[in-house]
Protein 1
Amino acid sequence: MINGKPLAYLDSAATAQKPVEVIDELTRFYTEYNANVHRGVYKISEEATAAYEEARAKIARLINANSPTEIIFVRGTTEAINLVAQSWGRMNVGLGEGIILTEMEHHSNIVPWQLLAKQKGAHLKYVGLTDDGHLVHEDFRQHLELGGSKLVTMTHVSNVLGTINPVREYIREAHKQGCRVFVDAAQSVPHMPVDVQDMDCDFLAFSGHKMCGPTGIGVLYAKKAILEEMPPYHGGGEMIREVHLYESTWRDPPYRFEAGTTNIAGAIGLGKAIDYLSELGLRNIQLHDQELAEYMHDMLGKVRGVKIYGPANPRTKAGVISFNLGDVHAHDMASLLDEDGIAVRSGHHCAQPLMDRLGVSSTTRASVYIYNTEDEIDRLVESVERAGRVFKV
Ligand code: 7TS
């Protein structure tokens, strides 16, 4: 209960709630077989190692990777992007070369590339957006055709607009020009079937906490041949083959990229979350989210003074809706919704360049997931109408 009202949690794009199955598995790990992995020969260490590696295999199956060795455990999407920028990027992106991004990226898919560009003297090139929140394909073609770009990095689903980008098509075009492609799948893997082989992306990242898993665990997928060429990102225990006083050799992927004691409980919890989502079915989850988003789009769109950002056709977007009401500040809107027990996010959503493109400083964002209902959307809409009366829009 929030402010005497049942909580309507409409902020799953930020982080998802956790099913009891995942919480119980974390408790079971810590109470029954807590041990470090890949080290002990005793029973519970073997059990922990098996559960950790089984989680890796579940992730590989979920996204249809060729092999579990293409799955690297990281802290989240942010760390995955930094890893690729500093390992693959430093080796492959040189002076005057280009990195192609889009104007709808989350800060975590911008800043690591800015850091790399500064280190290497590379250039960032942005694909612009149409007024209704789609990528301008022509911009992309022009950047590619100019040549000299080594990487395209783009979000699969916008965390602000809900736009679903045609990544498969973009990847095909990028590959024709010899560009590698990184897909930020933080907002897609939790909500829809994603097949990395069909997509043919070179890298893909997502976070466990947005898909009913624990915080502090996430995934970097990369094609095996690319991983094998990449130098380590972090140095430390478990990522080495041999250590001498002045030099060392590295293990094969994925262990080369998992230095130190990793988030074992997090990985096992994520494995359990994947079981949970797979039982529901990713296609069913996508349909459920889309139905609710469509309903929310229609109902909110009818409220006087509401402006919704992003694709006008809710069928072409995921379960994320950003809006503003007249000139009411998004933070005031979110506070008023909170009085009614409704949790939404307000602000720039870590996408300031996108806010600039939209010509606003902030929006209110409602996002849905497996546990949300039409009734909660009705409450949101009633509360937005109340805001209209309070703020005299
Ligand atoms: N990429 C996208 C598209 C995201 O939506 C987010 C997080 C990230 C990357 C970073 O993920 P992290 O798990 O490493 O933090 N997005 C949001 C959001 O929209 N509200 O809070 C976090």
Protein 2
Amino acid sequence: MNIRLFNTMSRKMEDFQPLTPGHVGFYSCGPTVYHYTHIGNLRSFVLADLLKRMFLENGYEVFNVMNITDVGHLTSDDDDSGEDKMEKGAARENKSVWDVAKFYTDEFLRDSADLNLLEPSARPRATEYIQQQIDLVQKLVDLGYTYEIPGDGIYYDTSKFAAYGALTGGALGGNRAGARVEFNDAKRNPTDFALWKFSPTDKKRQMEWASPWGVGFPGWHIECSAMSMALLGAHFDIHTGGVDLSRVHHANEIAQSEPITGAPWVKYWVHSEFLVDKSGEKMSKSSGEFLTLSVLKNRGYDPMAYRYMLLMGHYQSQLAFSWEGLDAAANGYKNLVRRVADIIDTKASNAIDSAVFDEWHDKILGAVSDNLKTAEALVAVQELLKSPSVDADTKYALVEFIDRLLGLRLIPAAQKLKELEAADVPADILALANARAAAKAARDWARADELRAQIDAAGWSVVDTKDGAKIIKKA
Ligand code: AMP
Ligand code: ZN
């Protein structure tokens, strides 16, 4: 099947041609684990997951990498200054920086599993690749791309790299020259960035390493160049991340890599747009006001409802989060699950109509292969499930494929729904569940959570479905 992707580098839709036939390698910038991953961050990881699923269903062998940033990401992404976010997180929580990294990595991995994100082929941590980062900086030093700011670090001189900022339309696309009142005026160019930072002399850092230039820690950008080259080779097919990364982080990754690997280092750059609030403000960790998947779950939403909400949009468009929107997505998802449960009830044999199967398979995979048009694919899924002319067995086989492609767990959810419907619930538990439904309707989340806990303690769990809350005996 023809695969098309929008390439940020060319600003065009392009037919995907792999570097090695039948194989795709891609790298996705992962989370910085100084705080919870919020549902906006998760949007960029869902993009990576959809790409992987789409390539797998097209018969590709996929090798994909998503890093964990556990050192070097400074509080000002824009001009690469400020404190290390990790050390700041450790001070905030009065924990060791390693404990902070472990805690938020585990939280992130749980969210990833809840959202049904496929495991990447490799999940390197920046602190595991310090030597590779030092080696890369050394190569740049040897090639004459760097200079030292005494007491600060080794910097990359962006004026040495003619194509700097090409990803966002030239040098000014990068760290805006002169636009900031405060930038490190020891830098030769405002767009220059740190490759290696020296440890401060007045306080002890928890994470630091010896290097040919002095004790310190790597800059944020170098980690992605080093880990991607180590795991994917000097050239690879696709690099992904959120749109905010294209202007500085990815511009810097390219500037560090291409003097060593030759251009183009990466063939296709794919960026996902922001999750924003009603006023259009980007959800961000640093503002401290953000929603996590756990919050959604505690309010009774199935993580698949959020996944469905993302899939109903397009990764290149901003998506405004609202509870009403999430309710609508939850209902849309439940309707699909209801229909799948009915298919399970009516399917008879395992014989499928292969011509009909191919027609719907190609329609749905075709939409996702065309620059990840997931909303179009979901419209086709709805049509398919409603269609009276497709028999239940063929539908079921198609839903198995749809679950692999879109990762919506329709079949397990439908099976669970059927179990719930079969359960015999005692009257006192039913009363608690009704009170919880009333609290939810009144958006009294605290009360709803309290009632859920009581139901839980009595050995039952409550699951929200299209027909209201269902109660199931815990195994
Ligand atoms: P960070 O953990 O801050 O390093 O960010 C991880 C990923 O989340 C990056 O690819 C960011 O571009 C992306 N990201 C950050 N905020 C948002 C948002 N509000 N919506 C979508 N993606 C985001
Ligand atoms: Zn990165």
Protein 3
Amino acid sequence: MSFKKVLIIFALIMFIFGFVFTSCQKKTTAVGIVLPTKDEPRWIQDQTRFLDALKSAGFSAKVLFSQGDSAKEKANVEALIAEGIKVLIICPQDGTAAAAAAELAHKAGVKVISYDRLIRDTDAVDYYVTFDSFQVGAAWGEYLVSQVPAGSKGNNLYLYAGAASDNNSFILFEGAWSVLQPKIADGTFIVRNSDKAVALKNKPNLTRDEMSQIIGQVTTNWNFNDAKSKAEANLTAVDAKAKGTVYICAPNDGTARAIADAFAADKDVKKYYITGQDAEIASIQYIIDGKQSMTVLKDVRLLVKDAIDAAIAYLKGSQPPVTKTYNNGVKDVPAKPTPITIVTKENVKKEIIDSGYWPADKFTGL
Ligand code: BGC
């Protein structure tokens, strides 16, 4: 056999060996990331920012979506455990239902980082990466109070909240209540769409159960259609004197746009002020157009960085930084909340465009 032939046979054997070896190797992922749904721009933002940041994170990772379904969320976690993850970064669809998935991960020796929303009623959460949601709610309250003519009484206030299955809905509401409650108690505002809030107006600190009662009446379920129907039903239930100029505490951008559209369509509503959060592209356009009054920019790039840094700390066997704890019903979960930025028409260019958060070509009328 010629030397050339030997060489070709050798190369062929090496090729087959290499092929068999790689296909037999078990696929491994170091960090699993589970996000709640692709149906809301907020979580697409998180996915995009994660994929960007993961390019230089130095570990293998995978992002999966639960599509609003806790069973799918658990199946995602199981699949990631089977791929050998060491750290799970998970934003629960339902804070309590996700406890089972977190416990599975913990049993498999995986560190569990609750991302943006806190997993409740389990000690299988190691760390919580979050924005300061209390501050977000307080910012809504402060914005609405700042728009009221000084010393005026009886201003119409409409309260809305997120899904009761999301722990954030409570923290956000608590923050808003901390600022609005004294102004409801002294008559500056009259709450027009929650008799439970009216009944509790003299209580600065509400129990979780009391908050549940109000949230139960004003929830949007974080759903745009539910938000629109609730706003329409609220407007149908009141007379013209509860309209005119209105102040609306809306829990995020998607629901704010839906609620704003419903109020704008009511001929007895002359002017409305409405809050939001997430700096979604569509809401930034609404702010530029004067259809949404404010949003809270929660710079997802920072949250993603916090999550990746925490994952790296765990992969190296160390601990992420802690400045605060959040009680999840069973445990005080260590956290380092990330600050927020308030965006109105006045500073939208500086905070959103000049900061590089969204490019100018996504908007008109800047
Ligand atoms: C998040 C918000 C988001 C909402 C609805 C909350 O837990 O903090 O940013 O808009 O869920 O998805």
Protein 4
Amino acid sequence: MCGIVGYVGPRPAQEVLVHGLRRLEYRGYDSAGLAVAHNGSVAISKAEGKLDRLLARLEEAPLPGRAGIGHTRWATHGAPSDRNAHPHSDNTGDFVVVHNGIVENFRALRSELEGAGVGFRSETDTEVLAHLLALEYEGDLKEAVRRAVRRASGAYALVAMTSREPGRIVAARMISPLVVGLGEGETFLASDMPAVLDYTREFLIIEDGEIAEVTRDGARIETLEGRPVERRSFTAEWDNESVQKAGFAHFMLKEIHEQPEVIARTLGGRIHGGKALADLSWAEGDPADVQKIWITACGTAYHAGLVGRTMFERLAAVPTEVAYAHELRYSNPLIGDRSLTLAVSQSGETADTLAAAKLARRRGSRLLALTNVVGSSLAREADEVLYTWAGPEISVASTKAYLAMLVGECLLALRLGRSRGVTGPDQERKLVEELHSLSDKAARVLADQDPFRLLAGELAGASSVYYIGRGLDYASAMEGALKLKEISYIHAEAMPAGELKHGTLALVDEGTPVVAVATQQNLYGKLLLSLQEVKARGAMVIAVAYEGDEEIDLVADRVLRVPRTADLLSPILAAVPLQLLAYHTARLLGRDIDQPRNLAKSVTVE
Ligand code: M6R
């Protein structure tokens, strides 16, 4: 996803901007560029591909100057190319912009501008913003930005400079995130804090519909309407050390290994006297009388929602629906004021999840956010927030955030179940004890990587892998399949085991890999029947099963063991071998594991 960095201060801007863009590489991108103001003009350098290509150009023709903006682009309008890379400028070259997100009415704006004789050099929606600025400029960049933003609809962040006002950068946030980093005699701008964490830990958040005027002395924020905003700065807890690989080959592997600690962190301080979230204060009183829970999310967070549904239904007896956010937001859902909407998102910036959450709120629902990022857009939108405390997740493939979401959902379900008189103290105490044991159990799964390496050799040549399970094991199967496909590029499909006979069994042949998750005791016998069916067609069965389960050896060719736990919590452990299987397969295939092709860490466009 696109990344933005800006700088005004005493240092060479090129250096700061390149460093910041390096820090944002994990988000995924396909081109990069810089614009730096110097001697009355703004010079641009940009290149398709990874940052090294841009660096090669900068080596030949450096950009001197102490104020500038930089960008990594993830293509939406127009293919990845030098000319579509940001920054973009107007025809005089005086106005330069970088932009994240999408200008929804850019076609109409572009034809209007072309009609007025403006020539375009790229296929991007961004370029209209540069031309609009030039047209709207009457001696004050901030006013020009304000007028341009009023004309451009959509969810985006815009950062602009002009050679006519050196030392000044103006940024506007229309949903897509932007922060200001404050230093001594220098000021930074970024779409994400890690971009500038090596320079400062003091931040101001620019909120939706606000404009910030940035100079080396700091930032002045006001609303689009021109009302000054007093914003208190805060100190970020994360430093860049915690976002390094710590000796692991990939961020994904590091994050998988952090999971035992993450489980403990998510639980930390949230259980008192055997009671989950006893001191969570709800903004409007306990929602014990809630009639329905809606869970909305995308990708891995959606899979967490599938597990959450069973937790809420079993522990709190609240009917729960899980909906992909991109579907929910356009489905005219019957969300009412006696409902609770749980929006689940690692980043808290996923555009669809945010939109679905806002819709739920408009319909009168209480909004609870389960997210990993403090101060994220989702967190700020919600009535209540439960942070997962998984720490920065850099790998595009989500791992530790998923486990933390499951733990968070279980805490919430226990809390609701207690308020509603559904889960008794004994049941709660037992589950809480079991939750506490999961850190050690997850660590046991991580202790020996050899089985995963060996199995990777068997999966790497497959063209399709099928993942099956029943009940909660089906949710785990979905997450396992997503992990494999997104980082290894092997086609992987998950289905409830009972669905095989209704079509997919036709594809199972000699050697077809079938990964079965077999932890749900009430459905275990049924799952074995499905495994016998695929076995009879020659499938190579890999099972994820509990330690001590001997029956599984009769049908599975390979078994990946997880320690026994309560069936309701088994997705927390089952995820770990599935992540490792995907990781080692992708590694054997030499894939770009932390930044898989075509994907981005944070999907801030629809
Ligand atoms: O930040 P979010 O949790 O809202 O992100 C949702 C999905 O984009 C994300 O889980 C995605 O599916 C991951 N790449 C999966 O590993």
